[in-house]
Amino acid sequence: MNCHERLPAKFPHVVKVANAVVKIYRGKANGYDLFTVVHYRDGVRKRQTFAKFADARAQAQEVATQIARGRVEVLSLTSADRDSYLAAMNLMEPLGVPLHVAVEEYAAARSHLQDHESLLSAVKAYARRNGNHHDKPVAEIVQELLADKKRNGASVRYIQSLRSHLTRFAEAFHCNIGSVTAKLIEQWLVSLNVGPRARNNCRMSVVTSFHYARKHGYLPKDETTEADAVDKAKDRGGKPEPLKPEQMAELMGKARGKNALYLALAGFAGIRAAEILRLEWKDFNFTRGHITVAADKAKTATRRLVPIQPNLAEYLRPYHNATGRVFDPKDDKRAIAFAKSIGIKPWPTNCLRHSYATYRLAATADAARVALEMGNSPAKLFSNYRELADEHDAKAWFAISPKRPHNVVEMRVA
Hints:
This protein is of the alpha+beta class.
């Protein structure tokens, strides 16, 4: 210590500026005096140590002055501002949130709203949307949906399709459905690495699951779902590929038994593969000349009557007294394998149904009629199959029979 430095008579020494108070404490370390400046700022105790009292006093004076100035600035508010400040503090006290934090949050939230939109109204809308539903895991919703479809009589084929698509979807999303965004759905669909039609079928199953979730209170009921925001893939596939009459004539000339029966029903009645496998002999009305595809057997869940063409009637003649199911589950695969074995490669997808549509439309020139027979829309039928064949090709196609398998060539020459 400087021998000329004069110390206060007692410690702690108090330095006061207006209402601000700073104290200086005296202590020793290794036989030397130490002077510690102590004050409180925002409820926190601050300490600074000096070897000389003069330095400690100067620092205490500076700190006290700064504190006093800060208080003076607050106390110099207008009466209205002071009342507003105190009111704000009272409102925030129950929440335990500092006033400056509340103001920061408000400013940040307000920046996301429209010019005339109220923050309170936006918060209420959010609470309303998120308070009227109970989020649930994707896997649980999928199981509920499948059980609901079965309980309400959906076709077996449709339920199988839903189960195939949505099981993969649930395996990819181990979370609540409310956490699945349109972007995530799109990324998942791309990861499947399938064609446009298959991708759109998967997308439609996912949309169905989201609509089910919304209907049953697992998603907000007054909003479109994230799945609805996912765009369909552009299906730029070419025209359907029907078989030529001479190809079908060669095929039917070599086919026997269930192979011939399956190929005849697919090619001369245009019934879908899955529907053919569900047929029973009681669905055939040989007297009136039609096949009933019941609602529970149809892909569209709508009953329809399919006419038995004269050449198809000849293939069906040996079965007039048959009963029970028409086919076993794998008869379709066996028939297609047979077709490929005689040289029709590649076998175009759904080519026999496409063939029926092509030649039946050419024969009747009536898209609405053929659409009813096939369970399709007239617009789709007209756009896909118009002018793929003429009436001479149609006559050749429907002239193929078990008695005259090769007459197609003779008719085309004539």
